[in-house]
Amino acid sequence: MTAGTATDPAGPVAAGEDPAAAGAPGTGAASAGGDAERTGDDAIRIRGLVKRYDRQGPIVLDGIDLTVAPGEFVCLLGASGCGKSTLLSITAGLEKPTLGTVELPLGPSAVMFQEASLFPWLTARRNVELALKLGGVASRDERRARAQELLASVNLSDAGDQRPHELSGGMRQRVALARALAQDRNVLLMDEPFAALDAITRDLLHEELTHVWRRTGRAIVFVTHNVREAARLGQRVLLMSSRPGRIAQEWNLDAEGVDRSDATQVAAAATEITARLREEIRRNAK
Amino acid sequence: MPSDANASTLAPSENPGGSPSTEPESATSSRAHGASSSSSSSDADLRELEAGLDRLQSSATDRQPSAWKRITRSVVPPIVVVLLAIAAWQLYIVIANPRPDLSPGPVDVFLALQDAARSGRLLEAIATSLGRGLLGFLIAIAVGTPIGLLLAEVAWIRRAVGPIISGLQVLPSVAWVPAAIIWFGLTDATVYFVVLMGAIPSIVNGLVSGIQHVPPQLRRAGRVLGASGFSLARHVVLPAALPGYLAGLRQGWAFSWRSLMAAEIIAFGGTIGFGLGSMLQQGRDLADLASVLGTIIVILAIGVLLELALFAPIERGVLRRRGLAGAGA
Asked: Does the N-terminal peptide bond of residue A244 adopt cis geometry, omega within 30 degrees of 0?
């Protein structure tokens, strides 16, 4: 199994190439990428990561190497149980690696989960305000104004006073996105954030997220089991194999010149990735 | 196992030329994709689309029934039942005509209460008992809350002390009266001791179970947002545990009130003031059944009133704000 190490050369190469290949995704991203290039820092650097939950237990993640450049959008794709969410949890610092190193040179990450995990006793705006408060914004007026801005940035200016249960699933995830953006981190980790939404809502949120990414220039690692979603969103798509979790193959869609706003090209990329994914899954049948 | 399942669901369309997406909603999703790619997402366009979808999906803001409707729905049925019960009682008195000292009618009971009210005993008893009940309840909150927090947060203390607290909740607090009289004599301390032993375990248990039922994803969200230790408790765990805590308080009040009555009936005289329990005991000594029944009704009414006027609205408000209860609940 050399698949895991195959990403090793690809990672740094992609990191160097991407800002150029991406065709300067918005001003924010361009400046963030530029800064980091000068200092030579990556957003995420994972080396030789191994995870098993107990000594006798199965190996969940086996020798993961992953480098994410500042402002880069990476999708981690895999079938259920391939350890992609574990990889994200470890990157977020919620779990410890058994072996290997995880570095976030640009500072810690913000995280978004499949369930919005909004605090039900707070209104949408207060949820965002709490994130600002915990992030150290001391002035109450400033928190309020910032929260309103962030909600407006995900098209929810009017929903600030509503409570989570009064919002639709898509609106809740947008509040969660605003809350994650409130942390003002350079890295955003997303664990199947749209998996529970209906197809129409998800489609709009893909656009929303692309806008937000272009505007804010954050590095995003997006975990999903949906091939089309990965092909649509990610500059790079990493396919993970299951048991043990390894990075089986990588597609640098941006370098290949795939226009991710064009449904036909996305579908073509998705076809290719799906074929490889099925191969990986079939391997488990034997 | 899961991988087998995956393999089998994929099997039907395994030919290389098959549909590219493995997800079941491929038809809908490709249609949606087609629509969005043609209108290649200007910001204003996206804004309008999202606003439309939000309107479609969140139209059902839970509609509050009017205050009048709520009152008629929650207050009228029990009143009707009570009136029917009194009517049946009166009917029995009229038809069977039993001995008035063994089976007083509603009128006798009413007169006995009126008598007690005129002499000032009724008001004194209500004031004494209510004051003690509420003060004891507040002390129980002050003592029970920190204990509950400690138990919820420190696992080995919870394992060690938890079963004892649960046991105390089952133990009728009247059982403490003899011991309390020996320790404190016939003083108010005896009454308060019994009330506390009754109420504290409920409050502790309510808080512990409230905290233990905080959804793990809320804790995780809090930690991801940078909360830990005290700030996690203050901003996430305690607010999330509030419904369980309130349920514990409500039960704690019920136990306070019951324990108080038990203590007042048994511990009678000395420097202990004259409460509703004492009034019951006095009625028994005088073989005045009408007065005893009247006192029982007063005790019941106070319990019901506090429940309806204090605890139910607070709990309903908290649950409704979190979307945990229908507006009619």
From this structure: yes
